[in-house]
Specification:
By secondary structure, the chain is mainly β. The protein has one domain (56-357). Helix content is 3%, strand content 31%. It has 1 helix and 28 strands. It has one helix at residues 66-75, and strands at 54-56, 78-81, 88-91, 96-97, 105-109, 114-117, 125-128, 148-157, 177-180, 183-192, 207-210, 218-221, 224-226, 234-235, 241-244, 248-251, 254-256, 259-260, 281-285, 290-293, 296-298, 301-302, 309-313, 320-323, 326-328, 342-344, 350-353, 356-357. It has a 17-stranded parallel beta sheet that branches. An 8-stranded parallel beta sheet has the order 4-7-9-11-15-19-23-26. Strands 14-18-22 form a 3-stranded parallel beta sheet, with no helix packed on it.
Length: 358
């Protein structure tokens, strides 16, 4: 088993997996690649959660309820949990939403014991610096340095963003998490069975991200998307992560058994709804880079392009760097000009070191 995931209750026949119970065993070790070879830069290391603004729960699982978590996120600051010594699942009936004037630093730390579940009916977490309802704090909402959101030591399961969008591509996708603006990091997190719309040319991701401050990357560290048969995330594009105009730096992480199930690509081919690209990772837009180090991308599936990675820069800038990683056994798709399982423009530089791609 890759990434230390407990794969109970899932079968290779694709039967539904019961995620109503906690998924994290406290003795199961970190998510992602526990013995990953890549050193993580200082700006991508865990945030200090030793002095929380809000503690969700009073020591019992029964005290860790959705309302308490949603209210804690609305207040901002550093959020931790006290749900007892055993793994606990908190099932939400609506997304927790970040207010842009409650930071600038916002940390959600599950202590390795908490799973946030959308119950198969709702997205789990939302941050949008350009959403007036979440408070505008600058005149340049698409490029502001706050909030600085860190999500760490926690799992996201059964999020569902189907029908959340308004057709402009800007609020579509993000079955578990949707982010626009500020800064965003994922550290020691897990994503299981999160979904968004099945078809569409520009919708995707268990995690969907837009316009990070000054083009700085989203950091993904020791994180698992899927990890075993029956636990993968599914969307029209980008089964794991999806973005427009956003750079990513991914360290010691696992993407497996995720699926991009749309068909017709982007832009949608005549007579098709579009989608089906980027089994694990979908990057579209301009001025972006993708860096992957010490990570495993395997057993992801697509209907259109990029069974592992889809990377299309509209202005033909940016590059892909893959170091000490393994990209194997991803299935489906066409258009692989340089490396199998990676779809990109012919002029996109791809630098591969000490890695297996086959």
């Amino acid at each position: 088993m890759t990434g230390g995931l407990l794969a109970w209750g899932c079968g290779s026949d694709g039967a539904a997996v019961d995620l109503s119970n906690p998924l994290i065993d406290p003795d199961d070790g970190p998510a992602g690649v526990p013995d990953g070879e890549c050193e993580v830069p200082a700006q991508a290391r865990p945030a200090d959660a030793s002095n929380p603004t809000t503690v969700v729960g009073d020591g019992s699982p029964q005290s860790c309820v959705a309302d308490a978590f949603v209210e804690a996120v609305a207040r901002g600051g550093v959020i931790t949990f006290d749900c007892g010594p055993e793994p606990t699942t908190i099932e939400l009936d609506r997304p927790a939403k970040v207010f842009n004037d409650t930071g600038p630093e916002i940390v959600i730390d599950g202590g390795g014991l908490v799973t946030l579940s959308g119950g198969g009916s709702t997205r789990i977490l939302y941050m949008n610096t350009c959403d007036e309802a979440q408070v505008w704090t600058t005149p340049h909402c698409d490029n502001q340095d706050h909030p600085n959101l860190t999500v760490q030591n926690i799992s996201f399961a059964n999020g569902n963003a189907k029908g959340e969008g308004n057709g402009d591509g800007l609020t579509d996708g993000g079955g578990a998490i949707w982010v626009r603006g500020g800064r965003f990091r994922l550290i020691n997190t897990r994503f299981f069975n999160n979904v968004c719309d099945d078809v569409g040319p520009d919708v995707g991701g268990a995690v969907r991200v837009f316009s990070q401050y000054d083009g700085e990357p989203v950091y993904v560290v020791n994180t698992t998307f899927g990890g075993a048969d029956g636990f993968g995330n599914t969307c029209s594009n980008g089964g794991g992560v999806s973005s427009i105009g956003v750079s990513w730096s991914i360290y010691n992480s696992v993407f497996s058994h995720n699926r991009a199930i749309g068909h017709g690509s982007n832009p949608a081919q005549p007579g098709t709804p579009g989608g089906g690209s980027g089994g694990a990772i979908y990057n579209d837009g301009a001025r972006m880079t993708l860096s992957i180090c010490g990570s495993t991308i395997e057993h992801n599936e697509v209907n259109s392009h990029g069974s592992a990675i889809f990377f299309v820069s509209n202005d033909h800038t940016g590059d892909i760097r893959i170091d000490r990683s393994r990209i194997t056994n991803n299935v489906g798709g066409t258009w692989y000009p340089t490396y199998p399982q990676i779809s990109n423009h012919d002029d996109t530089p791809i630098v591969v070191t000490d890695s297996l791609i086959e």
